[in-house]
Amino acid sequence: MISSASNGGTQVAMSTFARTAFGHASYASFRPTYSPSLFRTILAYHNERGGHGTALDMGCGHGIMARELAPHFDTVHAIDPAAGMVEQARTLLNSILNIHVRQAGSEDLSFLPDDSVDLVVAGQAAHWFDFGRAWPELARVVRSGGSLAFAGYKDHVLVGHPEASEAFRAFSYGEGEVAPGIEGMGRFWEFPGRGILRDSYAAIQPPASEWEGVRRLAWDPDAGAAAAAGVEGVPQEVLWQRHAMTLGQLEGYVRTYSAYSNWREAHPQRRRRAEGGEGDVVDAMFDAVVDAVPAWRVRGEAWRDVEVDAVWGSVILLARRR
């Protein structure tokens, strides 16, 4: 279980996504969707005991998990503590009648009766929960035999391009100057949350007095090996975050990082080239990424159209309510 000392980190992280200045619409546009294999894994585990009924999506963001679960449940509650995320979810999910969106956090589920939830999920959010408060609430609302599924994804690599993958890592986690006059994003990640995610949710331990059947399905690709040799043979249940996309789409995704949002606040003078500035940390990052692959470099300004195979490390934490 995460100690109460993690509470401060939780509050810092949530404040980033809750800020009015955070690009909630960009987050919805550029964050990768989840592959069907993720939902097959979650539903197969849940259906071992049967029953659909009510699902709860905590930290719903713009509603990816809620939308995919809606056909399988009578009711889906989608909650997020950030008003901007709730607005995006309501806009994108308003045509799905059995999804109910509200602003709320995992630590206060008072809007739900006891023993009313059959499945609780969190996509790319559980590493920010204050579990000292969330576990008692989950024990109260999830019925006996109900299920829990927390899914998260972390640093990506580009299959077949280890040098480009290393450039992403260097700019994402570098502390100090990573390009002339440009600081890396390393010190701008929120902790402990980022560390918990990168450690495949090892710190998130469902209390044994209330939860059983715990499974942790994790895959952590070595940036060099996975990028160079590919991912053939990796089980689909852990390879649920893989996408064919353009470098331009990947650039949009990187700009949804909370660390990037914090970096921009710390370096307001470094404006994006697209805004008429001399370039920010992401502009410099993609200079390095493109320079790492000669075939991309010769594309000039058309580098954003280059198609790549991106794959993320992942984790699914599953548990069943006693």
From TrEMBL:
One of its GO terms (molecular function) is S-adenosylmethionine-dependent methyltransferase activity. Residues 56-150 form the Methyltransferase type domain. Gene3D superfamilies: Vaccinia Virus protein VP39. GO terms for biological process: methylation. It holds the Pfam family Methyltransf_11. It comes from the Eukaryota. Keywords: Methyltransferase, Transferase. CDD domains: AdoMet_MTases. Signal peptide: none annotated. Belongs to the methyltransferase superfamily. This is Methyltransferase type 11 domain-containing protein. It comes from Thyridium curvatum. The lineage of its organism: Eukaryota, Fungi, Dikarya, Ascomycota, Pezizomycotina.
